[in-house]
């Protein structure tokens, strides 16, 4: 199939046109200032499912705080999560931290340039591996993400469903054939840049595209019909009551989430799955689950937070610990002052609740 797709495709001219355009038009981004594999790695992890403008300040802060693999490996996980706070998809930070520790322990702090060793590190999939090897080490390894699949689905008029794993494998083979051996770094970054700036999901700017003469979809007027992607499953909605519980000294109850799953090891204000528990049983549920005797007070507000697969709909209430009752010790719970809240990593929806305290 690859031979058929590339039968009349001028690979060397395509490489030339793409790389020339990239070198003349690339954005001035902080992770492009060097080929340091550690910094390339951090940027690629941060950029997963996150916009460039959002990542830039986090990249500066994170690399200033942890300028070397050794510095990151020495850090406590809670500290790393705090540095990542607000960027979302926190498993990225935990996996990066784990993998960097392995790099320091096994490879003397040098990010491996070997495809096999690099690919075994936690959190490094085929795309991230290809990005690091091509950008930092100038190796002609494909780095195929949604941007790249969109570009090549249009250029080669590929009508396979890009939501399927086998289609991604097909694009990896295509890019493996087409990638520049002389400048794989500029080639892969050029594809990413083209997808981000010109060959966009909606209303691609084909008249400005440096490779439009190679593009079959453009020739057929079919660029907006591609890529083909089956719809993801509908997001599940879950309703919660979040409790801002304070004691007589004004200290606030915070809860550490489980060490696996969604938002693992982050802190939050206690949340009650209200449809399961029922509003009338809320106080007894909190006592049963957490050992805290509370009195519910007024509602402060509500918010909605959208994850890729889930929607949280949260009503926010104040509550107080009933005077004279003992707060039962629980390693997942802490009583902290308002000033000390900023020492703990909180997910975005819980950061937004702090204005009500």
TrEMBL record:
<dbReference type="GO" id="GO:0032357">
    <property type="term" value="F:oxidized purine DNA binding"/>
</dbReference>
<dbReference type="GO" id="GO:0051539">
    <property type="term" value="F:4 iron, 4 sulfur cluster binding"/>
</dbReference>
<dbReference type="InterPro" id="IPR003265">
    <property type="entry name" value="HhH-GPD_domain"/>
</dbReference>
<keyword id="KW-0408">Iron</keyword>
<protein>
    <recommendedName>
        <fullName>Adenine DNA glycosylase</fullName>
        <ecNumber>3.2.2.31</ecNumber>
    </recommendedName>
</protein>
<keyword id="KW-0238">DNA-binding</keyword>
<comment type="function">
    <text>Adenine glycosylase active on G-A mispairs.</text>
</comment>
<keyword id="KW-0479">Metal-binding</keyword>
<dbReference type="Pfam" id="PF14815">
    <property type="entry name" value="NUDIX_4"/>
</dbReference>
<dbReference type="InterPro" id="IPR044298">
    <property type="entry name" value="MIG/MutY"/>
</dbReference>
<dbReference type="GO" id="GO:0006284">
    <property type="term" value="P:base-excision repair"/>
</dbReference>
<dbReference type="InterPro" id="IPR015797">
    <property type="entry name" value="NUDIX_hydrolase-like_dom_sf"/>
</dbReference>
<keyword id="KW-0411">Iron-sulfur</keyword>
<comment type="similarity">
    <text>Belongs to the Nth/MutY family.</text>
</comment>
<keyword id="KW-0227">DNA damage</keyword>
<dbReference type="GO" id="GO:0000701">
    <property type="term" value="F:purine-specific mismatch base pair DNA N-glycosylase activity"/>
</dbReference>
<keyword id="KW-0326">Glycosidase</keyword>
<dbReference type="Pfam" id="PF10576">
    <property type="entry name" value="EndIII_4Fe-2S"/>
</dbReference>
<dbReference type="InterPro" id="IPR005760">
    <property type="entry name" value="A/G_AdeGlyc_MutY"/>
</dbReference>
<dbReference type="InterPro" id="IPR029119">
    <property type="entry name" value="MutY_C"/>
</dbReference>
<keyword id="KW-0234">DNA repair</keyword>
<dbReference type="InterPro" id="IPR003651">
    <property type="entry name" value="Endonuclease3_FeS-loop_motif"/>
</dbReference>
<keyword id="KW-0378">Hydrolase</keyword>
<feature type="domain" description="HhH-GPD">
    <location>
        <begin position="46"/>
        <end position="197"/>
    </location>
</feature>
<dbReference type="GO" id="GO:0006298">
    <property type="term" value="P:mismatch repair"/>
</dbReference>
<dbReference type="GO" id="GO:0035485">
    <property type="term" value="F:adenine/guanine mispair binding"/>
</dbReference>
<dbReference type="InterPro" id="IPR023170">
    <property type="entry name" value="HhH_base_excis_C"/>
</dbReference>
<dbReference type="InterPro" id="IPR011257">
    <property type="entry name" value="DNA_glycosylase"/>
</dbReference>
<dbReference type="GO" id="GO:0034039">
    <property type="term" value="F:8-oxo-7,8-dihydroguanine DNA N-glycosylase activity"/>
</dbReference>
<dbReference type="Pfam" id="PF00730">
    <property type="entry name" value="HhH-GPD"/>
</dbReference>
<comment type="function">
    <text>Base excision repair (BER) glycosylase that initiates repair of A:oxoG to C:G by removing the inappropriately paired adenine base from the DNA backbone, generating an abasic site product. 8-oxoguanine (oxoG) is a genotoxic DNA lesion resulting from oxidation of guanine; this residue is misread by replicative DNA polymerases, that insert adenine instead of cytosine opposite the oxidized damaged base. Shows a powerful dicrimination of A versus C, since it does not cleave cytosine in oxoG:C pairs.</text>
</comment>
<dbReference type="GO" id="GO:0046872">
    <property type="term" value="F:metal ion binding"/>
</dbReference>
<keyword id="KW-0004">4Fe-4S</keyword>
